[in-house]
Structure formats: C-alpha cells, structure tokens
Design goal:
mainly beta; 6-stranded antiparallel beta sheet; 3-stranded antiparallel beta sheet; 2 helices; 15 strands; globular; binds D-sorbitol-6-phosphate; binds zinc ion
Length: about 190
C-alpha cells in the first residue's frame, strides 16, 4: 500500500544490478529442470538419458500487483545454465503472451546467448544477447533465450502485468527456428512442423 506523507522512505525492494537478483517483497522464484522440459528439445531421446534433476534455468520476478492487472508492470531475471540437449543449447521454454498484443523488454546481464523470436505466421529471427544488449520484443511475438556460452547466462525482463503466458502453441508446434551447436558454432536452423 502507498502511504502518502512527507517522509522519504527506503524502497521495499532492492536489485543487485550486476547479478539481477532481487530482495524484498512481492518476489516469486521458479526453476526448470531437464525432467520438467518434456518434448521441448528436438532430441527427446537425449533429454531422457540425462540427469532429470539437472537445472536448466531459474527465474526470479518482482510482481507488485496481481497477475492479470491492467496497467501494471512485472520485472524479472532469468539465469540459464550452460549445456546442450543433443546439439541444442539449453534454453527457456518460450511463449507467446496470453494477451498476444502485449510486448516485452529483455536485456543481457551476464554471459552470452541468443534471443529467438517468432511471429504468429511462424516467421522467425534471432539476436545475440550479451551484457548491455537491449531487446524490444514486439506484440504477437513468441520469445525464448538460449545460452551459447560456457558460463551461466542471465538476462532481465520487463512486461505488462496483464500479458500472461501462452505456452500451448510452443508445446504443440515449437519454434520455427532452433539453435544448435554445430562444431562449436551457434547455428540457427529452420524446423518444419511435422
Ligand atoms: C515473462 C518473461 C520471462 C520468462 C522467463 C522464463 O514474460 O518472458 O520472465 O518467463 O525468461 O521463460 P519461459 O518461457 O519459461 O516463461
Ligand atoms: Zn514474455
């Protein structure tokens, strides 16, 4: 609650601007392991043979209003471990927003990665992510980040509090472009829907 008087208050939340970690109120944390990412990587057989407890990525987010609130903003950090499933880099699940006309900002904090984007016509493109890179994700655009480095990758995000997440389309059809480690070179390849 906002208390209006003449005192100058200490903020309720803090962010470590180098690490992207938050402390304070209204925080949520989540993580995804190899075992939770069924059918997300192209080589499902390789995923099944890996340690199912292995961490792929984790998220910390500051949600100052209820999910679905019109006019608010959410703010978060995602950390992706280095690694591959088969030849495909560790990456976030990826999603459209539930309200598909909501955009988002991403920015690189640590490590090196690639932001993979896809519009509703399945037209895809990608951008490098690195400390200081800034990425405007337009409305109607699915987004996911892959870690192409040997170290942990982290990036920040800010999105409307009524955007929501639509994971179903990605679960059903995946992205139109996937990122593979081909002989040490990050290589984007077109994937046809089966
Ligand atoms: C939310 C924002 C990020 C992702 C996070 C994990 O709109 O894009 O906070 O939630 O990077 O990715 P995903 O695809 O598993 O939600
Ligand atoms: Zn998003």
């Amino acid at each position: 609650m906002n208390i209006i008087d003449n005192s100058i208050r200490i903020p309720q939340q803090l962010i470590n601007i180098a690490e992207g970690t938050f402390t304070g109120a209204h925080l949520i944390e989540s993580s995804k392991t190899i075992g939770q990412l069924t059918n997300m990587f192209l080589d499902e057989g390789a995923r099944e043979e890996m340690d199912q407890q292995q961490l792929v990525y984790r998220v910390q987010a500051h949600l100052p209003v209820a999910d679905g609130t019109l006019g608010g903003l959410f703010f978060g950090t995602t950390w992706i471990q280095p690694g591959t499933v088969g030849d495909e880099y560790f990456m976030t699940h990826g999603h459209f927003h539930q309200l598909a006309d909501r955009g988002e900002y991403y920015w690189g904090l640590k490590g090196s990665g690639v932001l993979i984007l896809m519009d509703e016509q399945r037209k895809g493109r990608a951008e490098y992510v690195y400390p200081g890179s800034l990425h405007y994700i337009p409305a109607y655009t699915a987004h996911r980040v892959a870690n192409i480095g040997d170290d942990e990758l982290s990036f920040g995000a800010c999105w409307p509090s009524d955007a929501g997440h639509n994971y179903d389309e990605i679960k059903k059809h995946g992205f139109s472009k996937r990122l593979f480690n081909r002989g040490g070179v990050p290589t984007l390849e077109d994937i046809q829907i089966a």
